[in-house]
Specification:
about 70% helix
Length: about 260
């Protein structure tokens, strides 16, 4: 595992160049180019704002405008969904690199995650701008977003190593990931608050590691709580994430020699 991670670090320059190229290739041939990467999520948020804020006139959540409460949970989910779906297909989508060239294939999921990360960073600043527009001044707690962003990226990388290597041998993995993302969106407290669920069932919901991230973004932007104030959830999240990360790295490194035979 140590050698696996060291090899990735040694390829960091190549990784960054390939990430920029992948980001451009996603939207090559379109008139607006890479702007589409930001237009789609922005349009989604605009629709939600119109439906819930203007149409349904949703009530504030804990004295915060509903739309601000919503985007604080939805933006990290956008990153998770985009990163996991594109990372899962990263190897089979670049089979020519696996079969014909001596290439460090473990970089492929990372390239997709970094492309998704660029878009997510844009929306983090977009979220800051929304809070400022609604009259909320910057707080030191906002810096905590960097911690949760790192935590989510580590989890995503581990998951992507698992799914991108398994899908080579089990193509249904792509469909399973799509189903998990679809159901996970509604089972994760994004549109609804965990407070509406009886407290005795909270532990079931919190088994989902994404709850830690979603609630962490809201704690940073809205509730002004530090991550160490809930040390039990923090330890649980990093235990699960560490297991997934190690299993993902080992799974990818073990299956990698057989990719070219299958592809």
């Amino acid at each position: 595992m140590q050698g696996f991670l060291k090899a990735i670090w040694q390829s960091r320059t190549l990784l960054w160049k390939l990430t920029k190229n992948d980001f451009k290739q996603r939207y090559v041939g379109n008139f607006l180019g890479v702007l589409w990467a930001f237009i789609h999520p922005t349009a989604t948020i605009a629709v939600f704002w119109f439906v819930f804020q203007v149409g349904f006139k949703s009530q504030p959540v804990d004295d915060f405008p509903f739309i601000l409460w919503l985007v604080a949970g939805m933006f990290p989910w956008f990153y998770f969904a985009d990163g996991l779906s594109s990372g899962t297909n990263s190897v089979i989508a670049n089979s020519f690199l696996v079969k014909k060239i001596v290439f460090r294939v473990s970089l492929l999921p990372m390239i997709k995650l970094l492309s998704a990360l660029v878009i997510h960073v844009f929306f983090i600043f977009f979220m800051f701008a929304m809070f400022l527009y609604y009259g909320y001044s910057p707080e030191i707690y906002w810096l905590q977003i960097i911690y949760y962003l790192f935590a989510l990226s580590v989890l995503l990388l581990g998951l992507s190593w698992i799914t991108s290597s398994v899908i080579v041998f089990f193509r249904d993995m792509g469909q399973l990931v799509a189903v998990v993302i679809q159901f996970g969106f509604w089972l994760t407290p994004i549109f609804w608050s965990i407070k509406i669920v009886p407290e005795k069932y909270h532990f079931l919901i919190e088994l989902n590691p994404l709850v830690y991230i979603i609630e962490g973004y809201r704690n940073s932007m809205i509730y002004h709580q530090w991550f160490w104030e809930n040390m039990q959830m923090t330890l649980y999240y990093w235990t699960i994430t560490a297991i997934i990360f190690v299993v993902g790295g080992l799974t990818f490194s073990r299956l990698r020699p057989h990719f070219s035979d299958v592809l």
